Amino acid sequence: MLSHYQLVGIFHDVFGHPLRTEPYLDCFDKDPNIVPFRMSLIKEELDEYKQAQKENNIIEQADALCDAVYVIHGAGHCLGIKLDNQNIQNIMIYDFEEEIKNFELCYQNEIFLGMAISLNKLLNMVHSLAKQNGFHKFDEMFREVHRSNMSKVCTNMEDVNMSIAFYKKENRYKNPSYKIKNDYYVIYDAETSKILKNHKWETPNLKQFFL
After folding, report:
1. Nearest by Cα to 154 from 119, 179, 128, 121
2. Which is a Pfam family this sequence falls into (predicted)?
3. Which of 25, 29, 49, 110 has the CB geometry, 3.0–4.6 Å to 64, for a possible disulfide?
4. pTM, whole model, 2 decimals?
5. Which of 129, 7, 2 lies closest to 77, judged by CA?
6. What 3 state SS string does the chain have?
């Protein structure tokens, strides 16, 4: 199946629009209007999306987003900037790393609002990466990880006693114990306060979503 970038390339080829395979580095001198024109197309689609959002028109929102992808890929072809999936993922990972640095910088400078904005950006980036990778069941995957995490606690005293006995036999922790939180029994090492897993803890089964 052809990628979006490849499909727009076919469109450009058929309609005689620029189709560059190498970076158009001298576009500023040779073709000073190409970027402003392409940017105007992108802004136009953003405006259409915002208007459709105000009108709560889901069809027009989808149309604007599809058109936005089309004109962005078109700009890529005009400028010789490859926007295929692999390249997008590399850029997204780079942006993710840079945003983590930004979060750390906000922390060092005690800018709480900056940290809040950064965390929101990081969350959106994770979801974008998941979508880019084709993880259409990402919500179900997340809930499976949550199920696994919650299996680390015990729900009855039998599991508590067996878990404590397991850790005592293992002899890695000095004082395996438990505490009650809501309806759960949390196993932990009283010496270090380290949270320990229920002896019946189950790893997340993410393979089921790829069968």
Report:
1. 179
2. PRA-PH
3. 49
4. 0.69
5. 7
6. CCCHHHHHHHHHHHHCCCCCCCCCCCHHHHCCCHHHHHHHHHHHHHHHHHHHHHCCCHHHHHHHHHHHHHHHHHHHHHHCCCCCHHHHHHHHHHHHHHHHHHHHHHHHCCCHHHHHHHHHHHHHHHHHHHHHCCCCCHHHHHHHHHHHHHCCCECCHHHHHHHHHHHHHHCCCCCEEEEEECCEEEEEECCCCCECCCCCCCCCCCHHHHC
Residues 12/24, Cβ–Cβ less than 8 Å: no
Q: What is the pLDDT of residues 41-97, one digit of tens each?
A: 999 999 999 999 999 998 998 889 889 999 999 999 999 998 887 677 788 889 999
Is it the case that residue 185 has pLDDT exceeding 90? yes
Distances (CA, A) of 103 to 89, 95, 129: 21, 12, 19
- The packing angle between helices 138-150 and 112-132, to 10°, is 110
Each residue's pLDDT tens digit, 95-132: 999 999 999 999 999 999 999 999 999 999 898 888 88
What is the C-alpha separation between 26 and 18, in angstroms, rounded? 15
Tokens of 48: 């259409």
CA distance to 45, 147, 148, 152, 184, per residue, from 197 (Å): 50, 13, 11, 4, 12
Q: Write out the two tokens for 203.
A: 């790893």
